[in-house]
Write a structure and sequence with these properties.
Layout (H helix, E strand, L loop, with lengths): L2 H9 L4 H11 L6 E6 L4 H13 L4 E5 L9 H4 L7 E5 L5 H11 L3 E5 L6 E2 L9 E6 L7 H6 L2 E4 L11 H19 L7 H14 L4 H11 L1
Parallel strand pairs: 1-2, 1-6, 2-3, 4-6, 4-7, 5-7
Helix pairs in contact: 1-8, 2-8, 3-7
Length: 222
């Protein structure tokens, strides 16, 4: 399918204001960082992290479902899931390993978030490296398999009596810090032209009512 031709066809069905917003947001989207959620079971946490990813410009989320199926609550996510790219791992015996292999094949180093004493503080993290940040299941945290295979470990500084943060809060802190410093670092973090075109086309589709019938009409005439 000719992406440019289809894009032009769909653009006629979307307002100029909408298209301008899409293009502006795309300028700040990145695949330099991505997020891995390992077996979260509380939907409000998954939803809140999804919202944080969208707010801070992270395009890709990798969802590992070993024990728990997860989905995004629109009440918490505020529709943020509509604009992200999801990769789910729930078909293998070892879904965590499948995710690790897939993410590594895309050139990411894997950074597990954990309050372990040897973890590096988020403010000291080298943002120039392409990284996937792992947030683990509530209470237990990131799995042993993930911890052992991770390329690094990261934690948020804490100075009170409480020894941990809610996973969605920790994710928001990490993503705000690394995404802000990434944009100031001079590293090439922006989407490629091809990636921008593909995501833009997907957003157009999601903005058009009765898109299935619209696509059918396009296919019949092209």
């Amino acid at each position: 399918m000719d992406v440019k031709k289809l894009t032009a066809f769909l653009e006629d069905l979307v307002t100029e204001e909408r298209k301008e917003i899409f293009q502006e947001v795309l300028k700040n989207r990145t695949r330099h960082f991505s997020v891995i959620l390992e077996d979260l079971y509380q939907k409000h946490n998954t939803s809140a992290i999804t919202r944080s990813c969208e707010v801070f410009g992270i395009q890709d989320m990798h969802i590992i479902e070993n024990k728990y199926k997860t989905y995004v609550s629109n009440q918490v996510g505020k529709g943020s899931q509509k604009w992200l790219t999801f990769h789910r791992y729930n078909q293998q015996e070892h879904n965590t390993q499948a995710c690790i292999d897939a993410v590594r094949a895309q050139g990411y180093q894997i950074i597990a978030t954990t309050p372990h004493e040897t973890s590096r503080f988020v403010g000291d993290f080298d943002v120039t490296k392409k990284s996937a940040f792992v947030f683990g299941v509530e209470k237990e945290g990131v799995s042993k398999m993930m911890l052992e295979q991770a390329d690094g470990h990261l934690k948020v500084p804490m100075y009170g009596f409480t020894e941990s943060l809610n996973v969605s809060v920790a994710a928001a802190i990490v993503l705000q810090d690394v995404s802000t410093r990434m944009r100031k670092s001079g590293v090439d973090w922006e989407l490629s032209e091809k990636e921008s075109e593909e995501i833009y086309l997907n957003w157009l589709k999601k903005s058009i009512k009765s898109i299935d019938s619209v696509m059918k009409r396009y296919e019949e005439t092209n």
